[in-house]
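[step 3/7] inverse_fold.run input=structure_tokens len=194
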């Protein structure tokens, strides 16, 4: 569970490409990201009065990033099979929420969790820097972006303690509830409609 999938997709692709041969290996990957096809304030824009609102062009830019990461991970499906490194299943789903938590589960045995603890207020780029949208951002507004590249992750392992097992169980229940309510990253969600 994350934002655009950037902190997951790039390192995971390297790991998948470096796996040793094992045709019986099976890797299942589920990625839950925000549904940015709908209005959202964070990430968004901040006007001169400090009011936060939706930023359609920025949302579209972020949606394209999510689609790119999904396609990058899906490209590993055939590469793993061809390289006899096993089978890979990739599924992205979207849920309408502001990104706030990072949850990375490994076989429900280990959990890495963190929060998106930085907001970055920056100038709104030119219209050519992000895809066109039907409603332009407000003139003079600044983008309110969420940053999480360097956020600290807490590692919980079932082998550590009863407390760690309880944390993993609770976060897993949270993830599964959101996953069940989430929608597939369908052609209606993909910016290029493929």
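[step 3/7] decode complete -> sequence:
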């Amino acid at each position: 569970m994350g934002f655009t999938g950037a902190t997951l997709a790039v390192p995971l692709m390297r790991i998948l490409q470096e796996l040793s041969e094992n045709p019986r290996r099976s890797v299942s990957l589920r990625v839950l990201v925000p549904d940015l096809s709908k209005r959202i304030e964070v990430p968004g824009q901040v006007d001169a009065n400090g009011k936060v609102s939706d930023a359609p062009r920025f949302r579209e830019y972020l949606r394209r990033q999510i689609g790119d990461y999904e396609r990058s991970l899906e490209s590993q499906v055939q590469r793993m099979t061809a390289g006899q490194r096993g089978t890979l299943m990739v599924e992205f789903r979207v849920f309408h929420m502001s990104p706030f938590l990072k949850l990375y589960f490994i076989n429900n045995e280990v959990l890495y969790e963190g929060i998106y603890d930085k907001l970055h207020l920056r100038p709104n780029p030119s219209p050519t820097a992000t895809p066109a949208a039907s409603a332009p951002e407000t003139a003079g507004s600044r983008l309110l972006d969420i940053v999480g590249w360097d956020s600290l992750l807490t590692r919980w392992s079932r082998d550590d303690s009863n407390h760690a097992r309880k944390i993993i169980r609770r976060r897993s229940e949270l993830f599964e509830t959101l996953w069940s309510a989430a929608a597939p990253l369908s052609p209606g969600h993909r910016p290029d409609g493929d």
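[step 4/7] annotate
The helical segments are 6-17, 56-82, 162-181.
The first strand starts at residue 26 and ends at 34.
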